[in-house]
Amino acid sequence: MRAPALVGALLSVSSALQAPLLKAPRAAPLQSTIDRAANREKTDAVGRYCADDKQPQRRATSTVKVGQVRIGSSDPIVLQTMGTTDTNDVQASVEQILRCKEAGADMVRLTVQGIGEAKNSLKIREQLDAQGVHIPLVADMHFNRKAAMIACEAYDKIRVNPGNFADGRKTFEEIDYDDPQQFEDERAYIEETFTPLVERCKELGRAIRIGTNHGSLSARIMSFYGDSAEGMVESALEFANICRKLDFHNFVFSMKASNPVVMVQAYRLLAATQYELGWDYPLHLGVTEAGEGEDGRMKSAIGIGALLADGLGDTIRVSLTEDPEFELEPCRTLAQLGDEAVSAESRQKAQNVIEFDDSQTRPITSFTRREVTLDESIYTDEFQALHRDGSVLTAVSASDLEDEQGLYQKLGMKTAVGMPFKDVASSDSIVLSEVPSDKTQLRTLSRLQTAGVGIVVPASVLRETPLEGAIALVDKDEATPECARAAALRLTGAETDAELKAASQRSDVAFAVVDIDVANLSRTHAARRVFHHLKANDCAYPAILRLGYDANSARAPNNGPLRKDLFILRMGMDGGSLSVDGLVDGFFVDAPFDVEFLRTASFGLLQGSRMRNVKTEFVSCPSCGRTLFDLQEVTAQISERTGHLPGVTIAIMGCIVNGPGEMADADFGYVGGAPGMVDLYVGKTVVRGGIPNEDACDALVELIKENDRWVEPSEVEEEELVEA
Predict the structure, then answer these.
(1) Measured between alpha carbons, how far is 685 from 688 in angstroms, rounded to an integer?
(2) Average pLDDT of the chain to the nearest whole number
(3) Distance CA 16, CA 19 (A)
(4) Where are the alpha helices (DSSP H) in 327-417?
(5) CB 221 within 8 A of CB 163
(6) Could you read off the pLDDT of 570-596 as tens digits, one per residue?
(7) pLDDT digits over 234-278, tens only?
(8) Could you report the per-residue pLDDT of 403-459, keeping only the tens digit for each?
(9) Exposed/middle/buried for 718, CB within 10 Å: 0-12, 13-18, 19+?
(10) How many CB atoms lie within 10 A of CB 42?
(11) Gap between the Cα atoms of 615 and 525, Å rounded
């Protein structure tokens, strides 16, 4: 795909990326755009976003040196985290750095708010050197250019945010560039501002990360490109061009966002742009403000994992609202999963996939769900085996059926007088390997069917033991048994093109189950091929991706432990590599864990993929030295009070260093404004300021109520009972 096509693709992205219509004329093209145009006739790599999207391998990059650590494709993926201590507290900072190093960090980033912190960083470095600890330190710089110059003395790498290094704090005022020269003149100011730092880094042998954040684009970039991945990339290219003009190449890029889908699109566009320019700078991957616990790990796995699956990424950070040393295990696990994805075994499995070209059916910089229809002859008000926004299928055993009320709870269902009914996060269908003969178990199935839950059973089993109204799981040439309401068509990825075309045209199919033969085929690449043919053949029915694991394949890499928190990362990467492209319509996760965990994790995968919201979405920063309250404690309090509001997004920020734009994804913001004080936002607008910490959570609840987004938990229960 040529550069104009990439730009055009960005203008039709989903609401999360949609740029506002601009009244002002477009300014003269960036020099990088001119370079790309001149380069098109010199390379056959135009339009690529990875080394090979059919044969996974790491994208070849140059090597960036950060102290004694090397970042680039010739070296292992570098693991990093960020300290949460006050940089003025030397002892606390040194102790935390040592804990991070012990946990496996290759480098640690620290907050440098001002000149005082920059000078104090020299003491941190001196103490580490005195203890013989030689770990690269990274300075996190915002706004204060003088402090950045001093930080060069103590730090091995300087992180610069193009959104606020030169443009200052956010105003979000729309700028009309009636004269294109005005846009050019502002670039000259950026160059004048950034050049001294680049020259100093070059002199001292330091590295730079040009780290764009989706939520902190400058007013000039927002006015020109809108709130888009294109704006993120072009913002970074302005700073990169200055580095190159000064013959400084020891820098890496990052394109972070709290929305994994936006994040993936931005990195892909940046990588594609680098191919067009003939550049090879490394990529630092991360989903910013991912949150905590299972949700934070899931969002990170979706975003980082989807890129690693295509061989993108040279250093990673998993941003969690937890102590920084706890970020390293998920960070290391994702790096190991990335190594698995580009291993010789994975390349062989990808090579086994029948050749296909999905360049027209899988846009790399936009999120568009495949158009599907829930056939009214199959789906009724009483029978909803799938959900339009994304579905969850859950495997249930005969022993699970024995505990009727327990099973309803595990499936996320509510009950009224002992009868089950669906809740906001109930499994849409269950999958059985056999039809029970026990009357109690059959009664449980009958009640589930009455509640609208689909019962999926292999067709061969239904022929032996019929179950009226079941959905028959059939193979490509298999007929649907008479007792079945409809078929669920199993596709393994081994089908020929003709067989996939015929499968797309079957009228008895309620949905497909894409169940890749992972023993012989790459799940990511074979599934992309299946979804390509479904889309190319205008297949109308939904397709559910089965993520199947046994006790070995569900483990952490390198025969690691079988743990839920680590499995989340594998599951998120496997599912996210397909969901970020809008290919899947739901998930059937089949693994050696309990029913309830697999259900909630599946819904986490749907919500993290921006498909179906079943609970409040929290955008929570990971804390740092700028944080003005205890983020972990406050996040827990807010989650407990507001976690029952599906469709509502709340940003919890320890400070507003990147401007309210960091909350680009949020409906409401809870932000540290001053020591002991909190500011509340609606969208990007502060509506209440200077609220004491002890009153802020109550004030947030009142603000949500005032904006008609609040529902009392008791009212939710009552409404569900009435519906039942």
Answers:
(1) 9
(2) 86
(3) 9
(4) 328-341, 344-351, 398-402, 404-410
(5) yes
(6) 999 999 999 999 999 999 999 999 999
(7) 999 999 999 999 999 999 999 998 889 999 999 999 999 999 999
(8) 999 999 999 999 998 899 999 999 999 999 999 999 999 999 999 999 999 999 999
(9) exposed
(10) 10
(11) 31
Report the percent of the chain where pLDDT is more than 90: 59
The DSSP code sequence of 154-185 is T-SEEEE-TTTTTT-S--------SSHHHHHH
- Which of 134, 249, 154, 137 minimizes the C-alpha distance to 202? 249
- Cβ atoms of 653 and 679 within 8 Å: the answer is no
pLDDT of residue 195: 95
CA distance 709 to 712: 10
Q: Give CA–CA dist 220/216, Å, rounded.
A: 11
Residue 34 phi, psi dihedral angles, 5° rounding: -65, -45
Element (H, E) at 81: strand 78-82
Alpha carbons within 13 A on the beta-carbon side of 625: 28
Helix/strand/coil for 699: helix
Cα Rg of the chain (Å, integer): 26
Of the two residues 656 and 334, the one the predictor is more confident about is: 334
Q: What is the pLDDT of residue 226?
A: 76
Choose among 432, 486, 488, 438: nearest CA to 461: 432
Token readout for 261 is 């889908």
CA distance 78 to 69: 8
In the block, which residue shows the tokens 């599946």? 602
Strands, DSSP E only, in 290-374?
315-316
